[in-house]
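Hi P.,

Sorry for the delay on this. The queue was packed all week, but I finally got your sequence through. Input first:
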Amino acid sequence: MDPLGPEDPPRIGPYRLIGRLGAGGMGRVYLARSEGGRTVAVKLVQTELAQEPEFRRRFAQEVAAARRVGGAWTAPVLDADTEATTPWVATGYIPGPSLQTVVDKEYGPLPLASVRVLANRLALSLQAIHAAGLVHRDLKPSNILLTVDAPRVIDFGIARALDTVLDDFRTRTGMMIGSPGFMSPEQVRGLRTSPASDVFCLGSVLAFAATGRPPFGTASSGLHALLFRVAEEEPDLAGLPPGIDTLVRDCLRKDPALRPTPAEVAARTEGGAGNEPWLPGALLAGLGRRAAELLDADGPPTEVAIPPTEVSAPPAEVAAPPTADAVTRDFGAAPGEVPVDPGPPEPAERPRRRRRRTRLIVVAAAAAIVAGIVVLSQLPDDGGDNGNKGGGGSASSSSSGSGGDPFAGAWEGNLTDSSDPNHEQFIRIETISGAQVGQKGDTLLVVSKDVLCKGEADLATKTSTERVLSPGKVTATVRYDPKANCNASAEQHLTPRGGRLHWVMANLSGDLQPAKTGSRPVPAVYLGTWKPASPSTAAEPTDRLTIHQGGFGSEVTTMTETSSTNGTVCTYRAILVSATDAGLVLGPDIADGCNAKATHIFTVTGENKLRRTDEKTGHTLDLVRAN
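Then the structure:
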């Protein structure tokens, strides 16, 4: 890490800069700390790139998609301001050197056992990245950081932002997207990249890690010669040890269709080091010392006056929504429910500025409140009412873990069921600040395609390393499937884990990420009244959807539909589950006297254009602004 220079701002958004971690074609990267003391890495986009409107648009889309990336082997995107004069993005700080530095300067090629673990973890990280709809496009040794427990992938999705402005920008700057020695043949030829392109890059990375050399050489003989070797010649894999050589050759096939998928790479490298350290002892010792030094760094004194910078404050949201493969399913058993109490809707607001969004592909993502609810479908109805309103969200925005309390704030993420690996859920919990044993400890919302459940639980025990919540109560149920019910009959255990919160309830568990809070979380671009873009029936031209501001767990949409067969007018209302740059997620519609609708999402598809997607049927409805 280098000290800050006169050209470096002392702060970016809410983050105080400590030092410069590096710089590249996309911009500069800084070590920084949040006001709550969390250490992060902040990437500040290059000034010339920030002046490209198409780059800014694509950068905003890619950051939104990157927020959805989950998994344990990537650096999570925590925060961003894509509309600042100079856009920036903050990620979780990974206290370790790059694979490039370790192999080139500090240790040399890694042993076979380490390379196999590296292959497995990188394949798992690519699965998470691809599940969010991203292709990394720049997987290389300098974008892989090594820590004492595993490698981590950084900078996923960022390179794509340059695709649409590449020709003009490269003409003026000579910049190339991707690192020539670790590019795929498709990139070299200017063809469309795909997840298979990342697998080719993975093969090059593994060859470098095991031999200390890029498989296609360097640009010492000329850039064009290097690119030709990548596109046309076979790799030089001399010295690659048995046990990894066949896998690397398969990854480096010129035909993308012949390369293994990340899932296949992960399966072929399962087992790894077992319970043994994944890196040699001497290297691990150095990593530990490095992490301690960087995390203890204090940066410039904060007492000096800080002049304003051109970088604006970030949006309130700090967490990625669920990844594309996080489809919620129903689970649990069902005592009675009570109706959801309505909150008064706020007047609709027109957008104040245009902001692009990418599609949120999951069915269930978080929303406001409590801990301990589960969803169960296909059980007898217990007589619970279809709640018709939600409580308001938090009064202000905040980051989880702020103020030194690792439990504080809102958290969301995917759950897995140890008794059924295919049984996945998504939850959002919000802890109650200052709660004492016996008092309400947190709130939770669980949503599936068929039902939305809200509930709460009291704090049973409280230590600095764990909180246990008593079996809770269901406070609201909104159903699409009339047989779907909710249950809150087991304890929850919460444990901080490196900036995340590990949540366990019976067979269910998950690592939750910091999440957005607030009473006005709906982005302005969604607010207002909408109508079908291309009515398919005579009645549809009169249909209207209104989206207004409201907290998580409260109603934020009202939709009227006229039947094309009998002229009946139905009114639907829906509760906000998640509001992010990726889209809005709402629970099943509340419809008095009409057929219910399942959990659905809204995404921006263009200027004054929305798309509503039914997560049960996959049916989509394109909408345009009506006023």
